[in-house]
Specification:
Strands 1-2 form a two-stranded antiparallel ribbon. The N and C termini lie far apart (about 115 Å). The chain is mainly α and about 200 residues long. The protein folds into 3 domains: about 1-50; about 50-135; about 155-198, no CATH class. It has 5 helices and 2 strands. Helix 2 packs antiparallel against helix 3. Component of the PAM complex. Belongs to the PAM17 family. It comes from Linnemannia hyalina. Component of the PAM complex, a complex required for the translocation of transit peptide-containing proteins from the inner membrane into the mitochondrial matrix in an ATP-dependent manner. It is a multi-pass membrane protein.
Length: about 200
């Protein structure tokens, strides 16, 4: 009767040791699978690409973010600048840079509004990049490729008259693949007219 508990204890110790070995092996397997999955995900991200339709859709969304933040920041700048300059003391006998003070203060309020316009565009772009953080590397890559295509395919700007500038020099109006093809046709047409007067 005294031997049975000893056998039970010894087998339980063996099972605990075996269980510990199994747990360590299982943990090592999880760690190995985690790093293999991480490497696989990294390779997938490297090989992942974005088609042009998705790029133009994201580009349009980025433009919407910028415009959405431009409106309140411009209004805030105008109202803040107007409030600040309206509470300044006016001396009709004094001038600033040879101009009337009211005119200078009004121009100052408009200037603050323009600063708010540019700040709103920057804030909208930053928030867009934070919201779409996963697509940010691909979007940057596509931005570079799109700009290189614009530089490569636009008409030569040297010698063009100021009265007839190159249409959409930076490709800002391109919002789809169809717009890009239309832009290419316009560039070829402009080049043909500039070179051969046809």
């Amino acid at each position: 009767m005294a031997m049975a508990p000893r056998r039970f204890i010894s087998t339980s110790k063996r099972s605990n040791i075996a269980g510990s070995i199994d747990i360590i092996a299982y943990a090592n397997g999880i760690e190995a699978s985690f790093f293999s999955n991480l490497n696989r995900t990294h390779h997938l991200i490297e090989r992942k690409s974005m088609d042009w339709n998705s790029y133009f859709a994201l580009r349009g969304t980025r433009r919407l973010y910028e415009r959405a933040f431009m409106v309140p920041s411009t209004l805030l700048g105008l109202l803040g600048g107007g409030y600040y300059f309206a509470h300044q003391d006016f001396d009709p006998t004094m001038s600033i840079f040879g101009l009337d003070q009211v005119l200078v203060y009004g121009l100052g309020a408009v200037g603050v509004g323009l600063v708010g316009l540019s700040v709103g565009s920057i804030v909208g772009n930053v928030i867009f990049r934070a919201v779409h953080a996963n697509a940010r590397p691909l979007l940057d890559k596509m931005d570079r490729e799109f700009f290189n295509r614009i530089v490569l395919n636009r008409a030569n700007p040297t010698g063009n008259p100021l009265t007839h500038p190159i249409p959409d020099f930076y490709g800002e109006k391109i919002k789809s693949v169809h717009d890009y093809r239309s832009w290419l046709r316009k560039q070829r047409e402009y080049h043909r007219k500039a070179m051969y007067f046809v």
